[in-house]
Each structure stands twice: as structure tokens, then as C-alpha cells.
Amino acid sequence: MSLDPRAWRPGPLLPPAGGAALTGLFLGAALISLMAVLAMAWLSADLRARPTLRARLSGGATIAVMARRTSGDLESLDAAAWRAREILATTPGVASAQVLAPAPEDRAIAAAMGAGAAPSRLITLVFAPRAAPASLPTMGTLIGALSREGLAGAADDHSPTTGPVERALTVDGAWLAVAGAILMGVLAGLTAAMIQSRARRVAPRITLLSGLGMTNTALLMRLLSPVTLSASLALIIGGAAALAIMGLAAPRLPGLAAVIPAPGAVDLILAAAWPAVAILVVILAATVVGAARMKRLAP
Q1: For residues 144 and 130, what is the distance between their CA atoms, to the nearest angstrom?
Q2: What's the pTM?
Q3: Which burial class, exposed, middle or buried, applies to 196 when counting CB atoms under 10 A from its CB (0-12, 13-18, 19+)?
């Protein structure tokens, strides 16, 4: 008759956590991490885009130039547009000026800008990107420069566009931030529920071991470790999956950029911090709930 050393190996002080419960926690934490990292990457992209948004939208203007009769002759519209371009391009604070090719909607755009129903050509201006705001030309300055050269025009500084786009980015960012906070709360609640369930299941063993002299700290570590390890591993895997999706799939979905700015490498790096923070939240939630249960169970 042979002696099997494994039969004499001591068993765990606390029963192992239920497999089904741990599997549920693992899948839940992985899914939460996946969604949260995606949300945080886009939130980072949203926040990074906002400081440059106003400068990009208000960093230019559109000018509608109309032909004006001078000395009995009517200058052609094309000639007026190119002459206006030369004047505007040399205006202080203007980086470049470009005459747009005629399009059917130009008359409606010019009318909305206040040019009336007269035929016109549109010119787009880009202001100097590093110029101080006070040094940029006003719409009155631009129109005045044209008037001094015998040209008529109307100007639009794109300000009606700036507000709605900024508000849209703010709403998107708020929803993403709220989603991240909600997911973090759900993760903490899931962890706390798992610790409560495990503590109820092993309560008699904890009471026994505590009465035999085992410290609460040692018991608490054994109570928490299966839950925190499973959740931490799931958060890392879920976060890695989200980063892989963002890095591989997002560039192939250009339609996403129409909703919120596409995340870049910096955004992915910042979003990768979410699983680390979530792991700390899991450990904190488990410790608080576990310690409270230990106080009630210890004799």
C-alpha cells in the first residue's frame, strides 16, 4: 500500500469562492472595463479638441465679393474676386486667402451673410494661427479694406457655428464622463455584493478561526483575495481589449469622427489608466465591505 502525500496536504483555511460567482464577476468586470476604457479614450479626445476648437472655427472668415461698377464700366466678378483676394491676403493678421470655385449654393450663402441677391464670389480667409486675438482683423476692417479699393462685400466670421459645435462637444464629453462614473460605481457595487455573498458563505469558518486566534487581517486577506484577483485580471483584459479595438477598428470607422473626435495615441495612453484606477476601487470596496463583515463575525 503506497502513501499518497497529496492526501496529507492541508486544505485552504477558507473554502474557495464559487466558480459560477467568480465567472460572473470576471465577465462583468471585463465588460465594464471594455466600455469604460472606450468612453475614457473618447472623453480624452473630446477634452483635447475643445481648447483648439474656438481657434479653429474663429480662426478664419468667409468674404462674399460683389462686382461694382466703376467709371461707367462693370468689373467682371472673377476679376473683382481675385483683386479682393490680393487685398485681403496682405491685410495684417491674415495668413492666406483663397477664392472658392463657384457653386450653386453660393448665392444662398452670400444672401445669408448680408450680400443681398447680387451675384458674388466667395473667398475664404485663414487668420494667422499664433497671432494675438487683439491683432486679428475684424469683419469691419476686412470690408473697409475692400471698400477703399472700390470693392463691395459682406463678411462672416463663423461665430454662429462656434457655439453649437462647442455645445455638442460639451454634451458628448458630459455623457462620456457620466458613463465612466456610473461604470465605476457598478464595478464597486458588484465587488461589494460578491464580498457580502462570500462572507455569508464562510461565516462559520471565520468565526471558528477567529476564536482559535487567527488575526482579522489574515482572515480578511483570505476572504478578499479570490474576488480582488479575479476582478483585477478581468479589468486588465477588458481594458486591453478596448485599446485593441480603438487602435485597430476605430481608424477603419471614419463615421465615428462625425460624432466625436477620433482618439489618438495620447488618448489611448490616458484611457489605459482607467483599469488601474478601477483596480484600486475594487480593492477599496472589497476592503471596506469585508472589514465591516469581519467585525460582525469575530467573537
Answers
A1: 24
A2: 0.58
A3: middle
Q: Which three cell numbers stand for residue 48?
A: 483635447
Cα 42 from Cα 174, distance rounded (Å)? 11
Question: What gap in Å lies between CA 5 and CA 235, rounded to an integer?
Answer: 38
Dihedral sign of CA atoms 167, 243, 277, 29 in order? positive
Q: Which domains does the chain have, with CATH numbers?
A: 18-52+162-297 (no CATH), 60-157 (3.30.70.100)
Q: Which residues pair with 153 in a beta bridge?
A: 65
Number of H helices, E strands in the chain: 9, 6
Tell which wins on pLDDT, 173 or 178.
Answer: 178
Q: How many CB atoms lie within 10 A of CB 140?
A: 9
**By three-state DSSP, how is residue 98 classified?**
strand
Q: CB-based contacts of 147: which residues, under 8 Å, 6+ apart? A: none
Under 8 Å between Cβ of 39 and 227 = no
Q: Given this model, what pLDDT does residue 161 score? A: 58
Residue appearing with cell numbers 499664433: 130
pLDDT digits (tens, 9 = 90+) for 78-137: 888 888 889 888 888 888 888 888 776 677 677 777 776 677 787 777 776 666 666 777
What DSSP element (H or E) covers 99? strand 94-99
Which whole-number Å values give the CA distances from 69 to 12, 82, 152, 206, in the listed order?
Answer: 98, 16, 10, 98
According to DSSP, the β-strands at 152-156 and 120-127 are: unpaired
Cite the beta strand spans of 151-256 per DSSP E.
Answer: 152-156
User: Which residue in 285, 213, 196 sits closest to 13, CA to CA?
Assistant: 213
Q: What is the pLDDT of residue 257?
A: 45
What pLDDT, in 10s, does the model give residues 226-263? 888 888 898 999 888 888 877 776 555 544 444 455 66
Task: Please report which helix (H) or strand (E) contains residue 159, including its range.
Answer: helix 159-201
